[in-house]
């Protein structure tokens, strides 16, 4: 494909970055709503208080969730073997996430249609599950990626997964799940504290700064733990412009191997630094009532934490614990040269437009939401 | 060996989740355009009744949209979850339209749908109208990309198998986009969605009229629905029928199965209206209209319609060639520099999928017996009679909709909207019929494609993930249970919304009788009141 103006290696690297952008985009944007969902029963105690939170995120949560849908679509289009292996491998975990996510759109829409307190309380807990469970399980999945997933490939590229759901709940993976939950809750709290008043904002600041502190501690603990884990290191020469064939490489397991990239490329240390600094700043801003700064800092924290995970396992996406050479990297799990190029053109065209209209919608819906402001809109939640 | 129970359960799960999802999608497609039309009238005329109508139908739209989102999220992920070999094998081609759907369509729809509901008092009239149109276009663009993806499964153009990566790869993206099957399916599918939207509005308006409630709103809505419905019903039948079907070999098999045409008929073929199957599955009695079959399926009088037996014979030849391609592929996989094997593969790769049909019977397909090849060839015939009957249900309803909306359109143009009670009651009762036609249509499209998941390229049984039965039993039961509970709740809520009727006092304080916020944008005071 000599007519494609970007070489295969560059496109694979760009798509690795774009995947990061989409997943971080979901964690920052969708994380707002997941976090508010996870805090809903605690930060808001009465029906009116809960309506404030639901109407705070109600106008924008659907757009935010598309970051996840698009992330799934982008993995499918740009890294099909990764899409195939991760989603079929973590099958029951995915089912749990999906069942939780299914509760969200209906929870928002159905809750307000009947005023019976039992009806509303049921949907409040459904919305709690819809926020809490995905935030936790997605982190657990990332933890399992660092541990290596028990899958192997045959010569036809068919994937065989030999683990089960309960094996996913390893102590390290649960720790990763709590880090994920903690950062998402911090994000949700920053959103609430930024656009509500009174007791709701007060509780959000308390829960948010607590979650932020816990996340800092757990993230540090995770870093120490990773130093003891076996990292996967490619020991053969990979042709970054070659046809995909994961089984062509050799892989060695090295204790502390997931930290090797930071020795080779010290600039990568910026990622965990931003993770810690962002969370710390978010905690401080929440405590001192700096609304916008808290949200920005919390978003930076999310960016830092997810980048840390991605850079640590680079060039891997999904290492295999049972057949290390079958582990999928960005070099041997991508789409064809032409598909990556077409998808880059399409993304370069549409992503800026998406950012512009998303910003427009947030601007139109800006402002503080209070119990008095819920008003008579029949579409309000 | 392939576990056929896992394959069957995976198929049931996909069918269940897709068919649930497609209860809500058509209404989103149709209702969003009708809301945009009503709001356009409001903006042009300034008459409050049209805004009230937009808001009322919008409330029902919202409940339906939530279910569409809830069931849609599963669709994006279950290719990888349940069909991982499919995802690897064709992801290079199939993933692109799915991702573009997110970038171009779903993002637009989902971002602006929030403004549609919450932005009434925060935007100018015109601004909000633009938002409503963007939601409608987002929904319909979404359908376009999904049907480009689905059209490729029916007619896999613009791609070639790469022996080095063991998958289909894009060679011509424009061919994937402008796939004739995809274009025909898009028009057919969205038009069917518009018919469901029109029937929804018409049936509920008829109920209001028969009860003498909300008469002004119901009359206006009925006029919009009757005209929109007539145009859409014509479009479903005329623009998006079987014309795209004859593009490929297996589409011919699908047509032959739909028509229960076991032997090639001399052109122009008759069209079988009704038939009674015998013990061997072939018709023992049938009632046919001469020439009609040829006209419907080939759009000509001299092209012949091939029969199932003749198509099976051809499939057998292609399976034998497919085995040659498979052997060459094995040699290439063992030694990538084997140019002789590559030459053989290049000549025969298009039949590789037919060779894979033998994988159901043995792993070493190069040693397949004549009996196994005959069985694999027989597998290319989908189950005839379910297709035969669902097609006739769909087609009968399709023509009925033209007549029905035609009648309504005629009466509406004469101003006879609420004068015929039996017709109004009939209209209420007909509410579910578009969904029967639509679900039948998807059944014909997907069940008729069997045994292929990608026609001629990848057999369905070969595409499933290596999951175990317990995984699938759990996931299938959870989905069906949760979806069913939510569907029942949705129907109950819609009935309540309809019973409550359009709100008389939208956006107004309790002590006001009429609309106050007619001058937009809102003042800070009203903004605080209603946000």
Automatic annotation (TrEMBL), chain A:
Bilayer disposition of the protein: Multi-pass membrane protein
**What are the transmembrane regions?**
13-31, 82-104, 125-149, 169-194, 206-227, 265-286, 293-318, 338-362
Recorded GO molecular functions are: electron transfer activity; metal ion binding; oxidoreductase activity, acting on diphenols and related substances as donors, oxygen as acceptor
User: What is its subcellular localisation?
Assistant: Cell membrane
Write the record's keywords in alphabetical order, separated by commas: Cell membrane, Electron transport, Heme, Iron, Membrane, Metal-binding, Transmembrane, Transmembrane helix, Transport
A GO CC annotation recorded here is: plasma membrane
Tell me what this protein is called.
Cytochrome d ubiquinol oxidase subunit II
Q: Which organism does this record belong to?
A: Devosia ureilytica
Write down the superkingdom of origin: Bacteria
Q: Which gene encodes it?
A: cydB
- Taken from the record, one Pfam family name reads Cyt_bd_oxida_II
| Gene Ontology biological-process annotations | aerobic electron transport chain
Keyword Oxidoreductase annotated: no
UniProt record similarity statement: Belongs to the cytochrome ubiquinol oxidase subunit 2 family.
Q: Does the keyword RNA-binding apply?
A: no
